[in-house]
Amino acid sequence: MKNITFAAIDIGSNAVRLLIKRIDEDSQAPVKPLKKCLLLRVPLRLGFDVFSRGRVSDKRADNLLRLMKAYRQLMRIYDVDVLRACATSAMRDAENGDELIKRIEKETKIRIEIIPGEEEAKIVYANHMERSNESTGNFLYVDVGGGSTETNLISEGELIKSESFNIGTVRILSEKVAPSEWERMNSELSRLSAGRNDIAIVGSGGNINKLFKMAKNKDTEHNEMSVTELARLYHLLKPLTVEQRMEIYGLNPDRADVIIPAAEIFLNIASITGAERIIVPVIGVADGIIDCLYADWLKSQSGK
Fold first, then answer.
1. Do the beta carbons of residue 191 and residue 284 sit within 8 Å?
2. First-last CA distance in the chain
3. CB 223: neighbour CB atoms within 10 A?
């Protein structure tokens, strides 16, 4: 059987990622797992244009096109068989989003889908549910991006509700989050969590991954930390300038600013739902896209 290679492109509000995985033919498992071949992240920060001006600037549009051309060449080198490219919050809001996507497809042959927030949320939680044994209890999956926050409430292994809120790190820094959206998030999550005890947050996104790595008090075996530990980190980082966060904690420039609003979003959600712990399994949209592609491919093979 040909060694099938999958690729996912995630065009987010803060960064654009390319993930390539291949079926591990050396595995003895009945269903062969995927192994990572390449992960690249380039902080184009499209959201800073879109949330302040309503459109992607010419400079960032040109850079996105250049990046897609580079990703296309890398996918050729890795002999990618199956690709899905998705754009999320910034491109959903950009008035020139459709125009830019058509230009990219014309020049690179990469077709980009602008996916709704609800689909973005399901991609993330489906990815982790496939990998985990957490079939009992209440879990709130929270994916914090640059332009939006996606949530999925899973109770006893069943999806109760998916939501997408236009509250993200870049959007907060751009001061473009409507007060009514905070109210909607608080009201909806308060309603969903009512009567459900011991809700655990399952966090995804680069910021919570970084905060988990920075945490001193954590359970590394289960990739878990307390909300109290997250609050401790937040209060250490918040008073510092971006430059100080870079110097003291070794954060990249495109992480040192957005990490604060990301922590605020997680702490706000924990306060509303009463969650006391955060599981950080290092999952993301790109991983979820590839897992969905692999699942569809397996189904197609079983039907042959």
1. no
2. 13
3. 16
